[in-house]
Amino acid sequence: MSDLTTLQNLAEKRRSIYALSDQLPVSKDEIVKLVEHAILHTPSSFNSQSARIVVLFDEDHQKLWDITEETLKVIVGDDEKFQGTKDKIAGFKAGAGTILFFEDKGVVRSMQEAAPLYADKFPIWAHQTSAMHQYVIWTALASIDVGANLQHYNPVIDQQVANTWNIADDWELNAQMVFGAIEQPAGDKEFKPVEERMKVFGK
After folding, report:
1. What's the angle, vertex CA 58, arms to CA 53 and CA 63, rounded to 5?
2. Which of 6, 42, 46, 158 has the largest count of CB atoms under 10 Å?
3. Could you report how far apart the first and last alpha carbons of the chain are, in Å?
4. CB burial string 167-179: b at 16+ within 10 A, e below
């Protein structure tokens, strides 16, 4: 099997998995090494290396979703309306851990100062950098049969996350990736026609 075929197979294997448990098929150290590799080898605009990542296991993972649940319950107010959200968060808590994705705004500012011609683009490129890290890690997790799904409860939990894990002021939270053992695979995926989403010229 060629490297390209392997890469394409992994791209197809990477799905949003919501039925997760905490019984990982690999060690925590393997997860950490996987994330470390992504930090080192995922590209960034102007080689800015602005991505910042926090990995939470066990009690810290649980604490994150307790914070999220408590914060959202105050916002929603009504217990009956909140039940669906509570059930969803319980599914996240059932996983083995969460990866928090941040971008360092201090790095972005320094890049803007160094290249003022592109100043308005650096925040956009920083989010693209974060997205690439998310995809690389998500696909790598799929390669070792660890399921994951991506959530976005920022900015409502940002300050409490920063306070709880002593996060630097310049680290901006972008996403939360829950991971764990796959208890139930993703369902069938529908695709919009490629010809509506792609153009080829000069062929």
Report:
1. 75
2. 42
3. 27
4. beeebbbbbbbbb
- 58-96 pLDDT, tens digit each: 999 999 999 999 999 999 987 888 899 999 999 999 999
Length of the chain: 203
The tokens of 54 are what? Answer: 């926090």
Longest dimension (CA), the chain: 59
Residue 69 near residue 154 (C-beta atoms within 8 A) = no
- Whose CA is closest to 146, among 102, 179, 104, 184? 179
Residue 1 has pLDDT above 80, yes or no: no
Residue pair 16/150 in contact (Cβ under 8 Å)? The answer is yes
Give the whole-angstrom CA distance, residue 191 versus residue 147.
21
In sequence order, what are the beta bridge partners of 182?
20
Q: Are residues 146 and 182 in contact, defined by beta-carbon separation less than 8 angstroms?
A: yes
Which residues, including other chains, have CB under 8 Å from residue 16's CB and lie 6 or more apart?
148, 149, 150, 186
- Taking each continuous run of H as one helix and of E as one strand, the counts in the chain are 7, 5
- Tell whether pTM > 0.70: yes
Q: Quick count: other Cβ atoms within 10 Å of Cβ 182?
A: 19
Q: Distances in Å between the alpha carbon of 3 and those of 6, 8, 9, 79, 131?
A: 5, 9, 10, 51, 23
